[in-house]
Amino acid sequence: MVIAPATANTLSKMASGISDNLLLATYLSAKCPIYFAPAMDLDMYKHPSSLNSFKTLQSFGNIMIPAGSGELASGLHGEGRMAEPEEVATFIEQHLTASTPLLNKKVIITAGPTYEAIDPVRFIGNHSSGKMGYELAKQAAKQGAKVILVSGPSSLNISDESVTLIRVNTAQQMYDAVHNYYDSVHVGIAAAAVSDYRPKVVADQKIKKAGEEMTIVLEKSPDILLSMGQHKKNQLLVGFALETENEIANAKKKLEKKNLDFIVLNSLNDKGAGFKKDTNKITIIDKAHNSKSFDLKSKAEVAKDIINEVIAKLNA
Ligand code: C5P
Hints:
Helices cover 34% and strands 24% of the residues. The chain is an alpha/beta fold. The chain has two domains: 2-99, Rossmann fold (3-Layer(aba) Sandwich); 106-315, Rossmann fold (3-Layer(aba) Sandwich), CATH 3.40.50. The strands form six sheets. The protein has an eight-stranded mixed β-sheet with strand order 10-9-6-11-14-15-17-18, sandwiched between helices. Strands 1-2-3 form a three-stranded parallel β-sheet. Helix 1 (8-16) crosses helix 4 and helix 6 (131-142) packs across helix 10 (299-315). The longest helix has 17 residues, at 299-315. The relative contact order is 0.10. The protein binds cytidine-5'-monophosphate (C5P). Cytidine-5'-monophosphate binds next to helix 8 and strand 14.
């Protein structure tokens, strides 16, 4: 949303949340980025109350397009003349490019657990909540990407028009959903805790209790990330490693085996890291085996660090 010309009166109402006309009501409920281009007389432009309005509006995340100098409506000359329309357009274009480095990039992210049916009422699953993957999707979208989030069963939801959420249950469904889009994406991030094995046969009816023991024969489920690595064209590929021992060595092995650009290692030995937690402590290891360790942080902040690494690698 662009507000230009933004007079001293309009700006002071925007800063104090007054909504006495359609423009102000639209501004107060807008969810898109807001740019304002002040246009006022020179003394007004320098007045502390205007400076206050600029500061307040910027503190709300609005972006100011500074006024230029020239002839003003009063006939005086000085600062306060609205930036020329072409300057406004160029400013917005440059600002959008700088503030959304993933603009025009498509990112696919897997999240959550998978559930592998044993019979109509039972399944093999795990404790993954999906939090890490959902935070990554939010962060990638915030940086301008179009995101496809393929999620196993999770209580989480996401409402961001740049994110397409595809819900699946099983590893096979996750594999199929990922490969429907994989050729068209620039970045793939596998944050899902996929069941490594699934029952070889799924019973049609609920299995009855019988005897002291029961055996379920399992077979390997598809390794989604491995297949993404094998079919890689120009995609930047990121995986996770949740390890309990020989963390760094195991993560490096996985990085190579799955043909990744970098791997995010989290160790269950670190307090605050792992399943169902709101925090995580990660080490990022890249193809050249450079590693960066980060402090314990909220998953939202961890997602920011990971997406920043994606941006750095795309620009490298
Ligand atoms: O081999 P491991 O399961 O430890 O590898 C973990 C990484 O591989 C994670 O990024 C996970 O999302 C991904 N993965 C997958 N499909 C599987 C198993 C793991 O995409 N079947």
